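To assess whether ligand presence alters the predicted conformation, the chain was also submitted together with dinuclear copper ion. Input:
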Amino acid sequence: MRLLFAVMALTLVLTGCGDPTLSALTPSGPVAESQFWLMKLTFGIMAGVFLVVFILWLYVLVRYRKKSGQTGYPKQVEGNHKLEIIWTVIPFVLLIIMAVPTVTIGFDLEKRYDKAEAMQVNVTAHQFWWEFEYPDLGIHTAQDLYIPTGKKVQFTVTSADVIHAFWIPALGGKIDTNPGDENHIWLQADKPGIYKGKCAELCGAAHALMDFKVVAVDQAKFDEWATKLKTASVTPKTDLAKQGQEVFKKSCIGCHAIGSEGGRLGPNLTDLASRERLAGILPNNAEELHKWLKDPQAMKPGNKMPNLNLPDDQINALVEYLGELKIDYDNGLPKQ
Ligand code: CUA
């Protein structure tokens, strides 16, 4: 029994129940609320079934236990039509009670989505990071997903390699991202806050490290962010940073973009120093960035960034340059 409770407690911890920013049990938007309601309904029914079965089982255990002096087998019963019909009909009815609202809510959510009023975000999942594009705003970014509060956001999701799943537990979801195909989901955050996102489909060695972060701010703050990101300066300030930019142009630009220049195989780095985490998981500071550039595979196994075997002085210059890529913006939310 003690072991059972330990396992249950561990499960709760592992499923992130302790963290409201990563929990479907603290819904923070209309989609998550509908889904939470369905969860409560299903859980209630399941708990009811469990209780009835458990009580019947206990009753049979006590009532028909072997009494002292009793020998031989008790009377054997084979088949009981009435009982069999009852225990077929009850689950059928319970399934209907769960199925009707599940389907209705699905259609209802679809109906509540209106393309004209929603903001569009294209999501591309990569091993093991997230690319976010705002087609109407001409913005390209990675890892930190900014959205305005109180507004529907339509996500068009796809994948650059294998199947991943886009999931922001506190806002709703999840939805698979499939290579060569597009899926759609709309979500909305009711109030400003940080909500954590996860990849929810086993996708390779660093699947568990494929985190991202949603930053929900009011519309004015969001517009400010969008403008600042779009007009971010990427000109190096110090001499060391200038050297860093040279290294970047030689070794990194094929995969990474800064500003409007560069490839799209790796995350866009325009505001790298403004992100709270590196690669979605590491504290964002010079030391960790240095470690990452030295050996990316050690930090996030299986990711697509090769070890460039850069000498330390080039890494230092790169760290300096990337450290300058900061936009002058404060989301006003408590740091995580
Ligand atoms: Cu991507 Cu799991």
